[in-house]
Amino acid sequence: MLRRYRNAGEPLSCEPVAQGLLNRGYRVFTTRGTFFLKHHLDGDHQLITRQHRATQRLQALGVPVAPPMESADGDTVAVIEGRCYALHPWVEGRHRDGSQLTAAESRRLGGLLGRVHTCLERVMRRDFAPPLHKGPYDDSLYDQSPYDRSLYDESRDGLHGEGLDQGILDRGSHDSPDPADTFELIDELLALARGRTPGDTFDALAEHRLVERRALLERHAHRRPAPGAEPATGWVHGDFHPLNLLYRGGEPAAIVDWDRLGVQPRAEEAVRAAAIFFVRPTGELELPKVRAYARAYRRAAGAAASELAAAVHRVWWERLNDFWVLRWRYQLDDRRADPLFAAVSALAVWWTREYEAVCEAFSD
Fold first, then answer.
1. Where are the alpha helices (DSSP H) in the chain?
2. Which of 260, 291, 279, 285 lies closest to 104, judged by CA?
3. Which of 11, 117, 131, 134 shows its CA 20 to 30 Å from the CA of 356?
4. Residue 231, CA distances (Å) to 183, 220, 262, 276 in order
């Protein structure tokens, strides 16, 4: 692999730094420095190359990214025995969630995401619609899941944001979840939670939240966003959260993990990101920081307050119908996301109760 690059040096050691569903990541030490080696399990050469070109062009516009290195033949994707790899410079930095950001830093975060969206519009062909990303896993189970902090705790310094990847690149449409489907899922998950013997405190909490959520959905089913109500679509990062953003000191050093680059409602990415950055462990959002973040995003992205309000409604509805942590636990027997359930499930309830305040914070 390293022989393909002019200035990579000779290998000294190679350490896995994270293991995700769509990628593998390694920290490579050589006689010339430290690098990040990414193994793209999906292996779509054309799609990976497009992502690489996007980051190269974004870097030219001053966006903090870490594009891959080019091999001696000018390619950024190395195919070895049918497997796709990319070599990136190692970025030293730390991940910071919203609790570690000041109000001023929250504003800079919102401005950064707005800048990402406007710069993507410049570097991507607006008339090109990306194909569905078909990875090696069931995207119906792994789509729309937030990051898993537990997978990164052991290597928070200098980590590229590879880990619990989130499923497909783009949905074929932007329709909101149908509550009839959610009621069926709730019944299935309730049966699985109640059927565990012996049950534990997690199973008891899951049962409580499932019953609670069913009652909320019955009460608010009429508020399902109508087809065509989504905000304006555009090119987005697709996975903007604390573990895909590295800070050096108080400044963002690199936005990483562009595997979900695609066309989606832009303002919804802003709302989803805020719901991950600024959620407290008890499930509430830090609304003063959200307000600072959202104002800066709207200014940088040229987004109207009505666009953010529409996004808030659609993401709220999405969260109200979402049980990704429980699906992982009960349908896939995968417990890596269990530590997130308390805050994720509480947020949906709190957001419903404080709907007007949340909407006002994003659109004020």
1. 45-60, 103-123, 139-142, 179-194, 201-220, 266-277, 287-301, 305-320, 324-326, 341-353, 355-363
2. 291
3. 117
4. 27, 21, 15, 20
Rounded Cα gap, residues 318 and 87, in angstroms: 36
Stated pTM of the model = 0.86
Angle at which helices 287-301 and 355-363 cross, to 10° = 40
The pLDDT tens digits for 70-92 are 999 999 999 999 999 999 999 99
For residue 89, is it left (φ>0), alpha (ψ between -120 and 50) or beta? beta
How much is the CA Rg of the chain, to the nearest whole Å?
20
pLDDT tens-place string over residues 95-123? 999 999 999 999 999 999 999 999 999 99
Rounded to 10 deg, the angle between the 305-320 and 341-353 helix axes is 130
Backbone angles phi, psi at 305, to 5 degrees: -60, -35
Contact 6, 23 (CB under 8 A): no
| 188 φ/ψ angles, rounded to the nearest 5 degrees | -65, -45
Nearest Cα to 144, choosing from 334, 350, 317, 352? 317
Q: What residues are paired with 251 via a beta bridge?
A: 248
CA distance 135 to 133: 6
Query: In terms of Cα–Cα distance, which of 356, 359, 353, 263 is closest to 306?
Result: 359
